[in-house]
Amino acid sequence: MTDTQYLLSDAEVARFIVSGYHLLEPELPAGLNESIAQKLDALETNPGDAITEAVPEIWQVLDHSQVKGVLVSLLGPDYQVQSHRHWHCKQPGSGYMQWHQDGLNNRDLHLNHFLGLYYPRAVSAEMGPTIIVPGTQYRNAPTDRMATYTNIRGQVPLVVKAGTLAFTHYDLWHGTGANRSSVKRHMIKFLFRRTRPNTAPTWNHDPAALNNPHDWNTRDQAEDVNNILTFTNPLRVSQSDHYKERSIRRECWNDLMGRTA
Ligand SMILES: O=C(O)CCC(=O)C(=O)O
Question: What is the CATH number of the domain that holds 127?
Answer without folding.
Answer: 2.60.120.620
